[in-house]
Backbone:
């Protein structure tokens, strides 16, 4: 079961015609899919759409009833390849992933499906991981849509608009035989709101009513001459049909305003932030009645030249608000107007930042600049500016008040994380053998690059930790160490990493971190997840897989055993036989484990059964206060407090209540020879009578010994 | 209705992973909806990690959306600087973070924040004390917001057995910043969860604190101070005769420590040593400098003389007060059985050093020949069992033999050397002498850490005759960089 359970929320997926649905963005999208006659859904988890995968998993019963097949695909490529189902057959399908990284992985299948064209409607739901909270390189999905001629929807971040985009998206896809992409920004995926439901509708064909007849049509195969023909079709038929459909169904909205000589063109996803900026300037109200005409692009690819011309024709200046770079939309609008007799000045990135997320305050400044340049009739700019002056001054005062930046609090390894001891071991090994070049991968383990570990020089993609060492290793005196998570391993690391290295005879050390789940994205099951926990009928082991592709030197080490890890790493680094040496660092994700353990503990307490918990502690009068333990372990439950010794300087370390008793700090203290202040306490609830007796005797004896302490000690 | 005159209430919740910021946001949403407000909220979850700062943003609007006209509130999805009505923060630095983001402004924002601190990694790993003072933070916030309600919500949560979000929710109700009744808040908690009791307890405490019903924090758990051996009245009187009153307090503390560490004779040795320093201090204008040199030397000398050895560790680990403190620290109740195991890793040197010099020499040469004990002895000793306790008590009992051990002799030689350098320096330059005193702070830790730091200390001692105060300070600071 994944980290977050939606078992309660998915009940709202059953809502029927006219009922009001309340919930988060991804849940609304799921409901919209069920209302849209989909036959299959697939995807690969990753923020911000991880919850959508969780919702779909938790909605198994509803899916079954509607005959919707759902696949936790092995990768985005595998998910995208599912769309082949809609090439020949009237099956509607949807896939989802984190973009642009997932779209990169899926690009091969996407481009082929887009070329062949689709008969059943196809919706690709991408979580645009851009701006605050993103964990990847900052790019736009827009380019993928444009280069493959896939239509791109970017609806307003309100639930009714999103649901509408899903439903209309399928119609657009079928009307134009083209896949449609639906782009949802991070906050949009999680926005809570409401919309009016429709009944769920099963697909025309599904597991309950399967297709009977196989279709063969060479025109749909992406090979010459079909591929040449398909390119022509994109331009001569699908594209004009898309323009017609988008126009006729008014997918984009032209909102009226009082100041008719200026206007704003905005991506749907940014519209809400724009409205707030206008509201602050007293140019709009809270429900979106604007004094400036706005053209909202629900479809950001393709643009509709006719609509753009109509919007611009009587305006002296128009501001294009387009997030990210390059500014494809602005360029395209300029090209559309070029050579016509419309001489509207088009502003965009000249007044707004060329790169980065467009937050409300940035938009406010951009719009103010625009008004200054455009000088529309009827707006008193001086009044507007002075109204803003006080707020601006207050903001500046607040921002500079402290005089120093507050410390960053990036996400990091959790309390008791099984990956931390591995990186402590690496730190200890580096203390003895010097610094290594360590190739990182994608996953929680990449937090090793942050203090206190500072381990991992680069990361170039999911499952690519080992492959990313293959160019440097032969040119480097010391062996390279590569990291790979179990998620990345099954995603592609087994082939692009391990098989590749064995095949090419590469040397080096690979550490595969087996924590049992795709942990960073919320504990989705992967092929090596324990069967009892994944609820599946299969479980594949990493060790067998790597041996299967020819790896010879493979060791599995429990990650909490720092001593064994240090020894094994040292052996792998220093031993002479060349080739790939693989260490599987095994330890279940502590977050997942604690969910189980804590529930069991609570249940035991509730029924009065014996239950024990373990906690680590530090004797403050023994602690030296040098905090090497924090630098070596970095566990969040290791924190500091005032030194009880008035003669000493600086705080001492203390273990707070978050401690889950993994014992790693104590083990590290042993391994690194730190101070003897760590202790482990086992607290037993409802002890057995024998335990009670033994404990009583011990406490009496020790108590007597205490009484004999010289002078009251 | 006339939308032009209606603006949503904008609420930012700054929390850290694991503090229930998501649940608090859901409570706020449910509360507003139950009072006929329309609600939008969103957040950036930062995938599954637990430790990062997370911001939740909520807008509430006193009107229902009209699904027929599609006219409803347009939520900005993210807070806009200068445009936040209510800022909730589960920790003091998070309030500071909101201030720096511009989410707290003078004419608009009510801030409700916990005053406790959860330290960031940067604060924890920096050498020395890099902790940010929450009092300063919240004072700054207070002068840049409309109203600040702050108290230690972590302590309240601990007292109520809830998590911090329930206390904060109670504070929102108690502060009276939203136009909803206390009952409406309570009903929200009751609707949301099957285990409402601890949350309601946390809520009540938060409500009381914020509504001025009570300003007394629930009693924080204070570790029992260990009762220590005390210096005799005679010894204290002698000290007071010898030393200027300004430093009596310090010396009472240090003497207590020395008696506790060894015995009265050892405390006497301490005072004798410090007296030679006092004389030189006096001769070099110490009176006009508040006897800073004597004070600083007194502080460091006490630390050097009470060096950490396995006798000391065994002693501290077997004290009665330790067992009491320990049970409190791990929140164990009387009816629970608690087993304690200590992680100890004495090196061979640490064992050897408590032997007499002769015996120590023999064991060292034996180890050099056979490799015995070179990696130390990592042991996890069960101190709560009689045998484990006795083993440590026997080691602690070696205290009476400490002054005959090789380590003792070595430490005393180092101290004498340091004092001699210090006195020599004091005659040349008072500031230099203070730097020499501070060098004693370089020695720290156990085992390997101790050996390394003592090595660095001795290396610096050798440079003193030719150094000035500035050079010495730079050398000392460079030597303070942590190895790990």
Residues:
């Amino acid at each position: 079961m994944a980290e977050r359970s939606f078992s309660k929320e998915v009940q709202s997926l059953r809502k029927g015609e006219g009922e009001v649905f309340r919930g988060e963005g991804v849940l609304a999208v799921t409901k919209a899919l069920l209302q849209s006659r989909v036959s299959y859904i697939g995807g690969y988890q990753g923020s911000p759409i991880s919850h959508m995968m969780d919702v779909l998993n938790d909605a198994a019963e509803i899916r079954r009833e509607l005959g919707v097949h759902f696949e936790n695909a092995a990768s985005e490529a595998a998910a995208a390849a599912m769309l082949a189902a809609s090439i020949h057959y009237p099956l509607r399908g949807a896939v989802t992933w984190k973009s642009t990284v997932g779209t990169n992985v899926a690009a091969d299948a996407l481009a082929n499906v887009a070329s062949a064209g689709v008969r059943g409607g196809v919706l690709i739901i991408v979580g645009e991981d851009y701006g605050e909270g993103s964990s990847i390189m900052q790019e736009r999905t827009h380019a993928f849509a444009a280069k493959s001629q896939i239509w791109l929807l970017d609806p307003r971040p309100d639930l009714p608009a999103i649901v509408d985009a899903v439903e209309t998206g399928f119609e657009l896809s079928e009307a134009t035989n083209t896949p449609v992409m639906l782009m949802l920004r991070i906050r949009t995926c999680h926005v809570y709101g409401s919309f009016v439901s429709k009944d769920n509708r099963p697909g025309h064909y599904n597991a309950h009513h399967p297709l009977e007849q196989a279709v063969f049509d060479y025109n749909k195969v992406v090979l010459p001459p079909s591929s040449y023909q398909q390119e022509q079709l994109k331009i001569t038929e699908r594209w004009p049909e898309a323009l017609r459909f988008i126009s006729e169904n008014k997918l984009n909205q032209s909102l009226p305003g009082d100041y008719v000589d200026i206007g704003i063109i905005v991506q749907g996803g940014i519209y809400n932030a724009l409205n707030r900026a206008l509201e602050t300037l007293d140019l709009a109200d809270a429900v979106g009645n604007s004094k400036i005409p706005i053209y909202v692009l629900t479809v950001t690819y393709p643009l509709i030249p006719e609509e753009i011309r109509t919007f611009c024709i009587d305006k002296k200046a128009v501001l294009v608000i387009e997030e990210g770079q390059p500014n494809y939309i602005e360029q395209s609008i300029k090209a559309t107007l070029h050579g016509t007799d419309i001489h509207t000045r088009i502003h965009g990135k000249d007044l707004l930042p060329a790169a980065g997320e467009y937050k409300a305050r940035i938009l406010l400044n951009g719009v103010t600049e625009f008004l200054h340049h455009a000088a529309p009739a009827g707006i008193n700019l001086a009044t507007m500016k002075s109204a803003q002056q006080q707020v601006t001054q207050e903001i500046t005062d607040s921002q500079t008040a402290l005089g120093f930046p507050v410390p960053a609090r990036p996400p990091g390894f959790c309390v008791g994380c099984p990956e931390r001891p591995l990186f402590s071991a690496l730190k200890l090994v580096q203390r003895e053998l010097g610094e290594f070049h360590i190739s990182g991968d994608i996953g929680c383990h990449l937090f090793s690059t942050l203090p206190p570990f500072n381990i991992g020089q680069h990361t170039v993609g999911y499952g690519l930790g080992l492959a990313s060492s293959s160019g440097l290793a032969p040119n480097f005196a010391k062996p390279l160490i590569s990291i790979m998570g179990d998620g990345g391993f099954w995603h592609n690391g087994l082939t692009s990493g391990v098989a590749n290295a064995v095949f090419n005879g590469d040397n080096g050390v690979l550490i595969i971190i087996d924590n049992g789940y795709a942990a960073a994205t919320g504990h989705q099951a992967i092929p090596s997840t324990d069967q009892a926990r994944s609820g599946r009928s299969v479980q594949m082991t990493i060790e067998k897989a790597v041996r299967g592709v020819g790896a010879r030197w493979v060791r599995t080490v429990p990650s909490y055993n720092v001593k064994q890890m240090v020894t094994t790493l040292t052996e792998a680094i220093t031993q002479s036989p060349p080739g790939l040496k693989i260490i599987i660092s095994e330890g279940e994700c502590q977050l997942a484990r604690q969910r189980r353990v804590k529930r069991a503990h609570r249940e035991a307490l509730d029924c009065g059964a014996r239950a024990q918990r373990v906690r680590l502690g530090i004797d403050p009068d023994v602690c030296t206060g040098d905090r090497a333990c924090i630098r070596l372990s970095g566990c969040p439950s290791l924190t500091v407090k005032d030194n009880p010794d008035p003669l000493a300087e600086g705080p001492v370390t203390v273990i707070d209540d978050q401690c889950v008793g993994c014992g790693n700090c104590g083990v590290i203290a042993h391994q690194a020879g730190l101070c003897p202040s760590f202790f482990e306490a086992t607290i037993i609830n409802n002890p057995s009578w024998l335990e009670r007796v033994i404990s009583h005797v011990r406490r009496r004896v020790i108590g007597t010994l205490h009484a004999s302490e010289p002078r009251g000690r | 209705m006339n939308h032009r005159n209606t603006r949503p209430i904008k609420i930012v919740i700054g929390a850290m992973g694991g503090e229930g910021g998501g649940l608090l946001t859901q409570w706020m949403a449910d509360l507003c909806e139950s009072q006929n407000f329309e609600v939008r909220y969103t957040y950036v979850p930062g995938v599954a990690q637990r430790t990062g700062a997370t911001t939740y943003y909520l807008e509430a609007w006193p009107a229902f959306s009209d699904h027929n006209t599609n006219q409803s509130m347009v939520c900005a999805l993210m807070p806009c600087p200068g445009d936040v009505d209510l800022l909730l923060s589960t920790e003091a630095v998070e309030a500071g973070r909101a201030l720096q983001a511009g989410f707290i402004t003078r004419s608009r924002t009510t801030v409700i924040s916990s005053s406790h601190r959860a330290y960031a990694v940067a604060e924890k790993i920096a050498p020395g004390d890099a902790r940010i003072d929450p009092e300063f933070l919240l004072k700054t916030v207070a002068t840049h917001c409309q109203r600040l309600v702050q108290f230690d919500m972590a302590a309240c949560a601990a007292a109520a057995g809830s998590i911090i979000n329930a206390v904060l929710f109670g504070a929102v109700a108690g502060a009276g910043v939203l136009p909803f009744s206390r009952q409406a808040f309570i009903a929200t908690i009751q609707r949301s969860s099957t285990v409402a009791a601890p949350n309601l307890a946390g809520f009540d405490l938060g409500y009381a604190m914020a509504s001025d019903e009570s300003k007394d924090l629930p009693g924080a758990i204070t570790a029992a101070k260990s009762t220590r051996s005390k210096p005799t009245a005679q010894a204290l009187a002698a000290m007071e005769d010898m030393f200027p009153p300004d430093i009596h307090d310090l010396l009472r503390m240090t003497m207590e420590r020395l008696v506790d560490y060894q015995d009265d004779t050892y405390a006497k040795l301490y005072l004798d040593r410090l007296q030679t320093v006092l004389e030189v201090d006096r001769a070099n204008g110490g009176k006009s400098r508040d006897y800073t040199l004597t004070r600083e030397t007194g502080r460091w000398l006490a630390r050097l003389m009470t060096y950490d050895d396995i006798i000391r560790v065994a002693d501290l680990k077997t004290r009665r007060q330790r067992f009491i403190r320990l049970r409190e620290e791990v929140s164990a109740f009387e009816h629970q059985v608690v087993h304690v195991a200590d992680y100890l890793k004495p090196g061979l040197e640490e064992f050897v050093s408590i032997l007499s010099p002769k015996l120590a020499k023999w064991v060292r040469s034996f180890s050099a020949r056979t490799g015995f004990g070179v990696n130390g002895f990592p042991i996890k000793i069960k101190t709560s069992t009689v045998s484990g306790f006795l083993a440590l008590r026997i080691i602690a009992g070696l205290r009476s033999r400490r002054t005959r051990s090789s380590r003792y002799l070595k430490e005393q030689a180092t101290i004498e050397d340091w004092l001699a350098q210090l006195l020599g320096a004091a005659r040349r330059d008072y500031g230099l002498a203070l730097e020499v005193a501070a060098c004693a702070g370089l020695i720290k830790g156990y085992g390997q850490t101790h050996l390394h730091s003592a090595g660095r200390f001795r290396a610096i001692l050798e440079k003193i005759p030719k150094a000035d105060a500035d050079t010495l300070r730079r050398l000392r600071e460079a030597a303070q960089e942590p190895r790990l």
Q: What stands out?
A: Chain B touches chain A through 129 residues (CB under 8 Å).
